[in-house]
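Lab manual, section 2.4: Encoding a predicted structure.

Procedure: take the sequence of the chain (384 residues), apply the prediction step described in section 2.3, and record the output as structure tokens. A sample record is shown.
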Amino acid sequence: MTYLADLLHLFVGYIVPFLLVLTLLVFVHEMGHYLVGRWSGIKIVAFSIGFGPELVGFNDRHGTRWKFCAIPLGGYVKFYGDEDAASTPDYQKLEGLSAEERVRTFLGAALWKRAATVAAGPIANFILAIVIYALLFSTYGKPIADPVVSEVKAGSAAAESGIRPGDLLVSIDGSTVTTFDDVRRYVGVRPEMPIVVEIRRDGQLLQVPMVPKRTEITDQFGNKMEMGIIGILTNQESGNFRLQSFGPLEAIGQGAVESWHIVTGTFAYIGNLVTGHMKADQLGGPIRVAQASGQMATLGIAAVLQLAAVLSVSIGLLNLMPVPVLDGGHLMFYAIEAVRGRPLGPSAQDIAFRIGFAMVLMLMVFATWNDISSLVGRMSGSVG
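Recorded output:
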């Protein structure tokens, strides 16, 4: 009975929230491709959530097959003239089509229509994130604290640089900070990297150089991560904690700002990977996403939606990477076609897609290895 109870807890507590979040993100991404493709006059053969054998589906009046498939880890839109779900052209079939039929294929569409259709998927993910944040901010408000120091931890970078309680942080490296989260966000992705903090003390502006210390932190669920810390705290009295409410239009603007923070933070992390300032073990795969989904589910719908927004931006960015088989790879090919005046040959594209597939597969294997290593590490720590 205990074994069955554990399986039920795993399914309901982790797998179900993960699949719900993933299905939402995949549906929105593919719907972006679908809507712009339809608007561009391209015939769509199938809209699938998941891969593999079809579980349930139906045909609409336009001849598109809408279906759920057995492996719910992604999805695709298959256009007329495509050989497979990766939008690889079926050149043999295309040769047998009439001019009128060819215009309705993806490959036969104008270059700008193909580019718009491909870009629409990642753009839809960005729009979803903005809408989610706007919904959260307009419903619950946005927690805000002023960047005023209430406490400086002994031995921290801030203490060594002379930061004192009562100091107001004005900017970091020239970038204005208006909330305490701005400070945490900027510093967190810059461990062991010199920064200059501008503070206001007794009416004077002071430039304070410091180096955030690389610190391993553990969240409330026991997940460990490394980030830059300067060692300052704020409290209700100093930071004036409050929930700021927004109207619909303001909330959309704040949603865009919050989504942009994820974009800049992601690029900062990638840059730190390249320079060796951060480790690659924080790259997570499906296991870690499932774990995070289950953990957020225990905190309520708002936490799950916030996770969905973060993942939506991440999926949008990942798909825009200039790697063949990803949307960004297709856009790269279209840029080359625009410059050359003609597309790359089928053999060149085939080789590029094979390389791109291998790159994506290696990334997935590496991320999954990180997930497993993290789980094993946590289990070992709990046993010890």
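Check your result against the sample. Residues 2-39 form the longest helix (38 residues).
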